[in-house]
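Justification of computing resources. Each target in the renewal requires a structure prediction run like the one illustrated here; the chain below, 343 residues long, is used simply to show the kind of job we budget for.
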Amino acid sequence: MTVVLEGPVRSATSPPEIHGSGRDDVRLLVAGPDGVTHARFPDLPRFLDPGDLVVVNTSATLPAAVTGRRPATGRRVTVHFSTALPSGDWAVELRTDAPKTGQVHDGFRGEVIELPDGRLTLLAPYPVTGSMTTRLWQARAAVPQPMLRYLARHGRPIGYGYVPRRWPLSRYQTVFAREPGSAEMPSAGRPFTATIVTDLVTAGVTVAPITLHTGVSSLELGEPPLPEPYLVPEPTARLVNATLDAGHRVVAVGTTVTRALETVGTDGGQVRAGSGWTDLVLGPDTPARVVGGLVTGWHEPGASHLLLLDAVAGPAVVAAAYAAARRAGYLWHEFGDSALLLP
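Resulting structure tokens:
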């Protein structure tokens, strides 16, 4: 499905809580076969039923942006550390340095980038199916401490031009964040608070975790999501299967959770616990078999995430939701408003 929006998208430029309210002070659009309802995010429990299961992502966000220098050009560059690879190398993205950031496409094999207290060597283009340019690289970092400690000292959260100010890492963590590993925040979970989780449980809705470490989101038009590491633990798999057996809904908080659950889904509509790397791309040819509802933010037209939304909720529901959100002035991106899509 192609989502067509008339006029510019309104982007959230700052976290809602800095204005004196909570991080849950965002709008919630609920869309399903019966139409569209406009609400606030704390209203989420009233749109779910006792016995439903909400699955969340416990991945924590890394300070994955580091400023370096390209001796080959003499210019500063921002390195986005996207994904830790099994080899010990990293998939990285090069961006022009602030204030305006853009993708860098002229990196080359063997190029050395100077980092604070270290260096990064570009080894080979990192394969991205459908990309016409070399934007991501497999790279090797030579730094004086383990990479996560290095990033904690020298890195900052990845940011884009629609957020003009830098915010601390705490603004890019969800209430569920436990294990550092995501280059960018699994942002569908950002509006959740401890109070909302308590309200869900009080309403008879169970909450269960998975972990999927997400890479950079700055994919080009038509690029599928990158391979990402995931873990679906045994207790969560049992809860998912019990929920489905009882005829209730499994509601994923974000495309990351959907991707993890559908990766371990079976043809019989159940899931098995598992871990590894997923390259699953959901869409018209691979509809969702497990997830029956989705809490999500708003994605750019043309983004591959939209195909995943279609696979869960159906093109008609997704198109109606985006049209209604545009008319009502919903805010896009990680600090923006939310949607609950129900097929």
